[in-house]
């Protein structure tokens, strides 16, 4: 009971409210929400490797699957638009019309270049 009271008090504090509102503002800026819950991309990749053995799973496939619901639908129109573009680009790559090379992969072509930042070796 004492632990619960301490937890509730911590969540009702001004400090928590301030941090919570900052994170809510950051979350609102995200354009393409994922639906991965706690498993994250690593868990999704493991799941796909089990269900699709022998198939190379690239970043664009992971990105699309991370935004699908359990029925395979993408509920957000903006995300569905990008998923269709990814499908089109993957088809062009498989037909040899578009070439992927290093950081110029299907996902980068569909979403644009990644945010520049510090590289870690």
UniProtKB/TrEMBL annotation:
<dbReference type="InterPro" id="IPR004252">
    <property type="entry name" value="Probable_transposase_24"/>
</dbReference>
<protein>
    <submittedName>
        <fullName>PREDICTED: transposase</fullName>
    </submittedName>
</protein>
<dbReference type="Pfam" id="PF03004">
    <property type="entry name" value="Transposase_24"/>
</dbReference>
């Amino acid at each position: 009971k004492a632990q619960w009271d301490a937890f509730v008090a911590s969540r009702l504090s001004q400090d928590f409210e301030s941090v919570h509102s900052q994170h809510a503002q950051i979350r609102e800026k995200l354009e393409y929400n994922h639906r991965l819950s706690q498993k994250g991309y690593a868990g999704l990749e493991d799941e796909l490797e089990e269900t699709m053995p022998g198939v190379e799973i690239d970043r664009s496939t992971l990105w699309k699957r991370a935004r699908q619901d359990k029925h395979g639908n993408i509920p957000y129109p903006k995300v569905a638009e990008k998923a269709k573009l990814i499908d089109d680009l993957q088809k062009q790559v498989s037909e040899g019309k578009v070439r992927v090379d290093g950081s110029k992969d299907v996902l980068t072509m569909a979403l644009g270049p990644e945010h520049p930042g510090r590289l870690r070796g």
